[in-house]
Write a structure and sequence with these properties.
By secondary structure, the chain is an alpha+beta fold. It is built from 8 helices and 24 strands. Strand 12 and strand 13 form a beta hairpin. The longest helix is centred in the last third of the chain and has 17 residues. It is globular. The two termini are about 15 Å apart.
Length: about 400
């Protein structure tokens, strides 16, 4: 049995063996024997739409005394909530901004897109309506905001659900990037399978309150279990500093019911004993994924597994531009939930989420991408939308591994 102190000493002496979850799983898939002595830390990760994301800001607006108290605040047209502390005559406001709120001035723009713009240090339009109905306007960037934290009230769910639509009518839902067509013609899902933190620590023996993590590239802390956490379906409440985040790990994601927000989380699991190592042996095929009717998570249809979602698939699209007909309205561009696909035949890979919507939307097969498929009721259903990005999750686990090895991240 090892201790945290033992591992920290090995890191200091440059003898620690740290693997990403993906690297460890490849060892297990190749039937390589791994012992507690072979690995010291495994960096797990997940990336997905996480609706319970909130920014907490202290926002300078104008000089002290310029207005008595803010009643309403809008950031790029997104309603934000002043308080709870009084801001009387301060000229600044404490704010809560929901990642799920939608802009009243910018189409298809929500809190996730706002958070990404802030972290990119873009100027944000601010409108304050005070208690006397005076309107104060300004613009601000993250560098000018003295306090900016991002908190997820329920992140990194251990158990997610896949969805399909059994009916003939299309259904608008947050669980698909566009209204979902019916008669079992589409399938969407979330979760990064066997690299997800809580899949590798299902009883939360290692991941507990005050566990350190990376949230969108910034050092963060697990505060507690999340708002809808249960022993069967745990999730986490995590908080981190927006000023240290990397915008490639966070952003907006347009759904059938408007824009949402996605985040990327990585958590280290020190391998102290055989029980911890045993939990780390879980592979995609071992993890059940409920298949539900898009009309509600309470309407289960079957159970599939993450091997069908993530094994032998593509994480990113490629293009055969010879097939492009230069349509007046590009279906792939219009369907892209992160604004990564452009009509000029380019895909911004910094914005790409690997969701597959460009593949499933283009009628001319310009986009190539294997998204996986299942068989249900003797009918083949192809995955048409991913609401999790395994590549971003893998990349963040590598970032965490490097920070641990460099001594920049302490257990």
């Amino acid at each position: 049995m090892k201790t945290i102190h033992d591992i920290e000493e090995k890191i200091e002496n440059k003898t620690a063996n740290i693997l990403t979850a993906q690297e460890l799983k490849e060892q297990f898939r190749n039937n390589n024997e791994i012992t507690v002595e072979d690995v010291d830390i495994v960096t797990t990760g997940t990336c997905g739409v996480m609706s319970g994301t909130t920014a907490i800001l202290h926002l300078p607006v104008d000089k002290p005394g310029s207005f008595q108290k803010a009643k309403k605040v809008y950031l790029n047209g997104i309603e934000s909530y002043p308080g709870p502390c009084p801001n009387e005559y301060l000229g600044s406001v404490d704010l809560i901004v929901y990642g799920t709120n939608h802009s009243q001035t910018i189409p298809d723009y929500g809190g996730g897109f706002l958070f990404k713009d802030l972290i990119d240090n873009k100027k944000i339009d601010v409108t304050v309506i005070d208690i006397n109905d005076n309107k104060i306007k300004t613009s601000i960037s993250l560098d000018e905001i003295p306090f900016a934290k991002l908190m997820g009230t329920r992140m990194a769910f251990k158990n997610y659900t896949a969805f399909t639509n059994p009916t003939a009518e299309t259904v608008k839902s947050i669980f698909n990037a566009k209204p979902m067509n019916g008669e079992y013609s589409e399938l969407s899902f979330s979760g990064c399978g066997d690299i997800n933190p809580l899949q590798n620590d299902p009883e939360m023996n290692i991941i507990t309150e005050n566990t350190k993590a990376l949230l969108n590239g910034a050092s963060a802390t697990v505060i507690s279990t999340g708002t809808r956490s249960t022993s069967q379906k745990p999730n986490l409440m995590i908080i981190g500093d927006m000023k240290n985040m990397n915008s490639k790990y966070i952003g907006g994601f347009k759904t059938g019911l408007g824009p949402e927000v996605y985040n990327t989380v990585s958590i280290p699991i020190p391998v102290l004993n055989e029980d911890i190592l045993s939990n780390l042996k879980v592979l995609n095929n071992d993890i059940d994924l409920p298949l539900a009717d898009i009309h509600g998570r309470h309407l289960p249809l079957s159970t599939i597994n993450y091997g069908l979602m993530w094994d032998n698939v593509n994480y990113r699209p490629s293009q055969d531009l010879n097939k492009c007909l230069n349509c007046d309205s590009c279906s792939a561009e219009n369907s892209c939930p992160t604004n990564a696909y452009h009509k000029n035949k380019t895909i911004d890979m910094n914005l790409c989420y690997g969701c597959g919507m460009c593949k499933t939307s283009c009628p001319h097969n310009v986009v190539n991408m294997n998204l996986g498929k299942i068989v249900f009721n003797n009918q083949e259903i192809s995955v048409t939308c991913r609401q999790s990005d395994k590549l971003k999750a893998i990349n963040l686990t590598h970032d965490l591994k490097n920070q641990l090895l460099n001594g920049d991240f302490k257990l």
